Amino acid sequence: MDYFVPKLNKDWNFSNSTLILPQPSLASLPQLATDLIVHNLGFTSIGYLGLPDYIPAVSGVDSLEGDPQQSPGLSFPNEVYQNSDKTVTIALPRSPVIQARKRHHAISIQKFVESSGFKDVLLVTTVDAASRGDEGFNEPSPFRHFILPSHTSVSSTPLIDTLAKLFTPYLSSSAPPTTPIPQFPHGGLTRLVLTSFYQSQPSTTIPIATLIIYASEGDNSSLAEFLAEAVSRTVGLAGEGEREWRKPKSWEVGLMGQEMSDEVRGEMFG
């Protein structure tokens, strides 16, 4: 099975690249954050994942506010992007996984990673802020990290070291998980994908980690920028000083924006 379908005349290389897997989860924050990274940090679409697990969808190519013309081409349910020096790859889902194909999808993602030679993998997910314990409420940062336990010795990478340095472990100290893979409330398929990687060991020797952000439903566009900055720092894409994130056009027409806000207020208040 061809897990990755490359576009014609696109130069790409997965070896020695960090793969970012945003997981559709509460408030769609991982997708929004990686969408900002794709559009603001010079990523190019190099293909898509040819998995039959997504609800079929196709759209035009999104572009940034202020761009004079619509970019040519089409977007598919899971576009794959890479930066110019090929150190970071993003598989960005834009369509939900079909309910009956969730397990197949998790196994396919694991096989895609195994067959592609990535250096390491970072899942990005949201967890319901209401699920935090007392320790979580006392922490000033909404970010946590989880590193997949390994049956064998897996060498550390800058990704793993940076996560451990910047962010508090998920479900640490007083509430250790009873299973190797903890629950991620409202985290979508995060646990299923991590379980697939865990059960594939020792064949999977790639370091797998997860960046988690606590959030609630609602307009989280500013929090998406916060998460985009955290992801960028984690994978070595952070620049000097504070970055100004420009929003894609789709955020203002249909996804969010004033028109959508007016509709929501109309449904709430009549």
Strand residue content: 15-25%
Low-confidence stretches: 264-270
Distance between the termini: 51 Å
Q: Would you count the extended β strands for me?
A: 11
Q: Globular, elongated, flat, extended or rod-shaped: what is the shape?
A: globular
Order of strands, main sheet, comes to 1-3-6-7-2-8-11-9-10
Number of helices: 8
Question: Mind explaining what this structure looks like?
Answer:
There is one protein chain. A hairpin with a 5-residue loop joins strand 6 and strand 7 (about 90-95). The protein has helices spanning about 30-40, 100-115, 135-140, 160-165, 190-200, 220-235, 250-255, 255-270, and strands at about 5, 20, 45-50, 60, 75, 80, 90-95, 120-130, 145, 170, 210-215. With about 270 residues, the protein is α/β, with parallel strands linked by helices. The strands form 2 sheets. A 9-stranded mixed β-sheet has the order 1-3-6-7-2-8-11-9-10, with helices on both faces. The protein has 8 helices and 11 strands. Helix 2 crosses helix 5 (about 190-200) and helix 7 (about 250-255) packs parallel to helix 8 (about 255-270).
SSE arrangement:
Blueprint: E1 4-6, E2 18-22, H1 29-40, E3 44-49, E4 59-60, E5 74-75, E6 78-82, E7 88-93, H2 102-116, E8 120-128, H3 134-138, E9 143-147, H4 158-166, E10 168-169, H5 190-199, E11 208-215, H6 221-234, H7 249-255, H8 257-269
Parallel strand pairs: 2-7, 2-8, 8-11, 9-10
Antiparallel strand pairs: 1-3, 3-6, 4-5, 6-7, 9-11
